[in-house]
Each structure stands twice: as structure tokens, then as C-alpha cells.
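HOLO CASE FILE
Compound: pyridoxal-5'-phosphate
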Amino acid sequence: MSLSNQLSHVRATLPEQVTLVAVSKTHPAERIMEAYEAGQRIFGENRPQELKAKYEVLPHDIEWHMIGHLQTNKVKYIAPFVAMIQSVDSARLTETIEKEAAKCNRLIDVLLEIHVAEEETKSGWNSEELFDYVVSGAFGRMPHVVVRGVMGVATNTDDEARVRADFEALHGQFERLKPYFGERFDVLSMGMSHDYPLAVSCGSTMVRVGSLIFGERDYSK
Ligand SMILES: *Cc1c(COP(=O)(O)O)cnc(C)c1O
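Model generated. C-alpha cells follow.
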């Protein structure tokens, strides 16, 4: 199937209120342009330099989402234009985003990434540490960081009960944190190519789909 057919297929399976982030990491600008021509405007990338390089050559009405682990010294590459940083997983990173956003005189939307998966290697806040940080009022002192919600990655397994439990845990954390933020706290980003229908049934409002749209990634290049 062509990229535009794949994209329409994914869109057709999503309820209207669920936002689709097309994860274009590793894929060249020409492929992103194909998706753009098929009407897609939100793209996700996981490396700041790659994100910046693509931003520079592609149409500027694209909303770029950073979805991968972000080192504090790389925030500066994307702060001038990024639409949303979904992978905010520490106090230090949050404070760096505040500083860089202030320098650019911009507000940056962020999601708080919470660790729920079985794999220790996956990133994200420990939910209790995050809760303490939120309750401490830290975000009230960071006017350039707009907390829009929560992001997470489920355990990579065929065990559907485990994946469902991870999504339900993320939904629970989203509800628990919501009272501490304003009305704009309305994004629950969960679900990837292999598990997004289940994520949507567990309350996801934003899915991040890569290989189902662009095909398999080739990391050898
Ligand atoms: C790569 C990636 C995705 C997309 O994965 P697919 O399986 O290709 O859909 C989603 N979220 C994050 C955080 C990713 O790193």
C-alpha cells in the first residue's frame, strides 16, 4: 500500500477527537513530504539534530513533536520552533526548557513522560517523584513551559493484559495530575503502531504512529 493509503487507513481507525502524530524518525524529508501532501501536519522525531535538519527543509506549517529522550544540552537546537516536547522526564530538563523557551520568547507545550513499562531501560518519571515535583509548585515558576498532559510507552509484549494495565496506569496518572494544571491539560499521548487501538480504548487522545505509516525503519543507514 502507498504511504497515503496507509495514512488514510490509520486515520479511518481513529475517533475524531484523537490526534495523530506521524512518527517520521529515520525517514527522509521526501517521505515526510508525501505524508504532508496527503494532509498530515503533525510529525514526531526522536533526535534533536535530525528534527532541526528536517524543520529547515520542510514547510513551516508542520508541527514538530519531540518524542525521544532529550539531553538538556540539546534543547537549544529545537527550542526556537518545536511545537511540543512529549518526552519531559526530569526536573532538570523541564528547567532547561523554561530557560531556552524564555530566550526565544516562546511558550513551549510539553507532556510529562511517565515510566510504566516493565523494561527498566525505558525513560520517564517515576510517578511518585513526578507527583511530588508537581505538588511542590515548580511549574508555577516556569511561565514558558505549558504542561499539556502526559505521555507514556507501554511494555513491549504480546501480553495484552499487561499493555492494557500500562495504559490504564497512564490514564490514572493523567487524571491524578489534571487538577494541578489548567484547562489546557488535555493530552494523553499513548499508543504506537502495534498497540494504538488498545490505547484509544483506554482513553488516549494522541497516538504516535510510525512504522504503520512509513514502513519499517532502517537504522543501518
Ligand atoms: C518510535 C516511536 C514511536 C513510533 O513507533 P512505531 O512502532 O513505529 O509506531 C512512538 N513513540 C515513541 C516514543 C517512539 O520512540
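CASE NOTES: The first helix runs from residue 3 to 12. The chain has a mean pLDDT of 96.
CLOSED: yes
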